[in-house]
Amino acid sequence: MMYVTTIDVAGLTPDEYRAVLDEMGVETRPDAHIYLHITAPIEGGFRVIEIWDDKEAFERFLQNRLGPANEALQITRKAEITIKPLHNFFAPRLSQLPEVVARLPGAPGSHGE
Q1: Which domains does the chain have, with CATH numbers?
Q2: Under 8 Å CB-to-CB from 98, ≥6 apart: which residues?
Q3: How far apart are CA 57 and CA 62, in angstroms?
């Protein structure tokens, strides 16, 4: 079964978001069970949406990578996490995403610029 996960992080800044990703190294060493990672600003923070093929793998990721990265950076933010079975996924322009992603403010190397 596939899962969609959301993490709403109150008070997280763009620089903190980038620092956490860099600390975890997820863009160069992604977890074997993740298919997609999307982040969007929300009122007072960020929402992270991911698609995973294993619920327990996501929970291990939280414990073994995200938690230690936040601790190392001394980032303590309230986060609301949900895990739901994925109902559908539609990506008709998937082949165009690499060029779009490179221009996003949170892209690797952008540092929120």
Answers
A1: 3-89 (3.30.70.100)
A2: none
A3: 9
Tokens of 7: 């993490």
Residue 84 identity: K
Among candidates 84, 70, 67, 65, which has minimal Cα distance to 11?
70
Per-residue pLDDT tens over the stretch 27-53: 999 999 999 999 999 999 999 999 999
Sheet of 3-10, strand order: 34-42, 45-52, 3-10, 79-85
Count Cβ atoms within 10 A of the Cβ of residue 109 and give its class: 0-12 exposed, 13-18 middle, 19 or more buried. exposed
What is the CA 90 to chain-centroid distance, rounded? 19
Q: How far apart are CA 90 and CA 75, in angstroms?
A: 34
- Cα separation, 60 vs 72, in Å, equals 18
Partners of 38 in the β-ladder: 49
The model carries a pTM of: 0.88
Tens-place pLDDT, residues 78-99: 999 999 999 999 989 989 988 8
